[in-house]
Amino acid sequence: MTTSEKPVRSLEAKYYTDPSVFRAEQYGVMANTWQYAGHQSQLKHPGDYFCFEIAGESLFCIQTNEGQTKAYYNVCQHRAHQLLAGEGNTTLVVCPYHAWSYELTGELRAGPNIKSVPGFDKSEICLSEVRIEIFCGFIFANLDPLAKPMNEWFPDVEQELSAFVPQLQDLYAVEWVSVVERCNWKVSVENYSECYHCQLNHPTFSSGIVKAKTYDIQPQGYCLRHTTECQNLDKMSYPIDVNANEFAGHYSSWFLWPMMSFQVYPGNVLNTYHWRPIDHETVMVHRGWFGSSDTDEAILRDLAQQDRNTTVEEDIHIVESVQRGLNSRGYVPGPLVVDPNSGVQSEHSIKALQQWMRESVSIEQPRQS
């Protein structure tokens, strides 16, 4: 570093503590990026559906009779009652308020006494559709109909993940671990996006799963690609067959900006993170563990429990302490440790992530149609 250069400083506290920033993000980054909705295994039959939320909007995915996956805003076009809750199966989407019914493809089918209304044309009424993509068997939604495809946002991820998880298209969720973290969603995402803290704070992960000293993270489009070596087999905290395929002895993770990550543990074990902000200082973090027909579910559930009791629990205390510190009048954003050679003791990934965070805050109000 020359004398004219200055270290990059971390984001100001207001990005994590100011409710107006959070509201701006709901209209900006949360509404205009690809967000995790669910998994294709949740929609096995026509009429299967599940509800989810993005940017404060209630939405649902459903499979049509033709086998298409569709997503809609969860709101009746009559007088705005929400249509569905949870998950289930239905032959028609029926509003519980006045029994207006919609086809699985969104068109209005019927409503009590609507034929008595002069000039009523039901063909003009349809549920508001949301753009979706199926990416590696996972369903993503984007409230921006003009957003670029996921492969442009996240180059090479589909091919890389398919190589690390050969059974990718046959997966289903074996175990979910969900926790509430009392922090801004960006605090939690930042914590996930560096391993500078791992050896000090995550002894099980650092000694029983990966060799933390080999950990590195590099930007790949709007993806942060994590790589590291697998821990020595005699130190692994669960059994694996390193000869099962080319990547069985490897660890890698693909964080997809802004709130989703695919993580492959040694043994080709796929687990995911997705974040759902509740307010400016609270986020729900969902950890999914996925298996296929040849998965030993008992081993996977044990690994999920080990992870919950160690890494997840350790991170809760870290991120909540950071949030308290961000609310302190004594906090002055410090310089990031950006090593030109990258590596585990560098925060180059945080530099990239915080630049995306700066760019993403929008003060635009929602467009009126």
Jot down its keywords.
369 residues; alpha+beta; Rieske Iron-sulfur Protein; Naphthalene 1,2-dioxygenase Alpha Subunit, Chain A, domain 1; seven-stranded antiparallel sheet; four-stranded antiparallel sheet; 9 helices; 23% helix; 29% strand
Helices and strands in order, then pairings?
Blueprint: H1 14-17, H2 19-27, E1 35-39, E2 48-54, E3 57-63, E4 69-73, E5 87-89, E6 93-94, E7 101-102, E8 108-110, E9 131-135, E10 138-142, H3 150-153, H4 157-164, E11 172-181, H5 185-192, H6 198-201, H7 203-208, E12 210-220, E13 223-230, E14 250-256, E15 260-265, E16 269-279, E17 282-291, H8 297-326, H9 348-360
Summarize the structure.
This protein is an alpha+beta fold and 369 residues long.
